[in-house]
Request: fold
Amino acid sequence: MRWLRPCSGSRGLRAAAHVFAAAAVASCAPAGDAPGAGEAASATAANRMVELLSSGQPVFGIFSGEHTSEQGARMARNREADFVFYSLESGPFDIPAMEAYMEGMGEGAGGYAPQPVALRIPPIRDGADSARARTRAGLDAGARSIVYPHVESVEEAELAVGALGEAAWPGNPDGNLVSILLIEDRIGIERAAEIVRTPGVSVVIPGPGDLRRAYEGDMEAVEAAIQTVLAECLAADVACGITAGPDDIGERLDQGFRFFIVTSPEALAVGRAHAGRAEADVARATSTIGLWERNLAAFGVFVPPEFAGGAGPGGRPGTGVEAEPGAGAGARGQRGPPRYTVEGGRELARDPLLDFVFLNLERNYDPDAVEAIATGLRSPGAVGRKTLLVRIPSMEQDGEEATRARVREALELGADGVVLPHVRNVAEARAAVGFFEDAGADVWSPANPDGTVIAMLMVEDPDAVAEAAAIAAVPGYSVLACGIGSLTGALGGDREAAEQGNQAVLAEATRAGLADMITANAGDIEQRVEEGFLGLLMQVNGAEEAIRLGRQAAGR
Reply:
């Protein structure tokens, strides 16, 4: 697993300012100036094909089926597919139809990023300028891969790679666009060694269907041609692809093929099982940790409390407003102590836009609340698996022993992570890490990238912010965040100084490879994503609009 990269295309410029010093700006130049808007969009968003190919894992995709938005929605719901193969090789080159299909994929993906689309365009031999223009049109529409059929020469292979520009992987190791070259003619087979070794080629596929026609139905010759291409790919360490079904996909995996286009969901399941890619891989990739591993922002909400003895503000249960991280106040307008129910957790579990939920128990720690929300989030109607983060009272408030016990208890009751507020110094940061160790938690951190538990520390006081660099250097935790509400209060309401402190913490978290979380709304979420915050936390009211804006800014 890759850990967080300090500089990534979607992060752009990262501002760093010390709370009590002049602002210092650290910029991260993008990998390259892409030649068009579509490529820029593709280059800044994650591409599952690249993630898998770069880690040496096999990639499984499926033919698109009918070119309709309804079919797109159906395909996006199949989380076993790593990509969708969409062909415009023959017939009208109908990009608007593909855009409608992809819109359907977005709606059917259940709030997760839909699979990348690999677009097959007409052959380069139909005209080099046309091939470049069609590549550009496909990227502008959102395709993450261009498939070039009937590649017959090095010159055509070079054009295919070059048309993707600076975002082409693996020529640019940080690129997110994939070139797929189909060798489907006798002359291409004869030149396979040269084509495969063209710098920057991502995947080469011998096309069985067209090769059958090229060799006039001689299936022994067809298989020999396929094996020729595979041998050249293996020698050049280039991913070799093939079409396959449930009956032969296991054999093709054993032969060394790493990229598959299948005709049926059954073949996806057989291939993934044979390759040892369990469903847990998909769950990991779409989890909050999985998003952060790829430098992608995750979006969540405060769990809205209900109120004992009466309705919440506005007369409706479950609409209470909790304080932002670090604000220190409980729900406003409540008529009694807040309570949290299994049904409330179920309601959050059904929201396809949420990656995580934040249960704020800083002022009213209640283990029953943790258990209730955890149970609700794991209900059968859940859309994906939401990460449950539980904020407990600070060490300063209740002491180390109580905090240690609560970390263990919250995790045992179903929390995926625990948030410790008002960490005041390096000693408390080290103590906090020790609480997770004592609980036997497998904490996700730069030192343990395969961990599953989130340990989040918050610095919310001027003295603590001044120690942000030293606190960030403490090993063994996942997230370092600034409680900007509490910090603003501690600075006598000076929002500008508090924001400088917030940016200083972000800079230190980024430098240490830690995620950072901030509260946001529709008015500032795009800015926060661009600044590099990986956890965006909102109140329930207004969250839908904010998350949609944030996802767009994050390339999700």
Observations:
- Residues 137 and 389 are 42 Å apart (CA to CA).
- The chain has two domains: 33-285, 288-554.
- Residues 219-236 form the longest helix (18 residues).
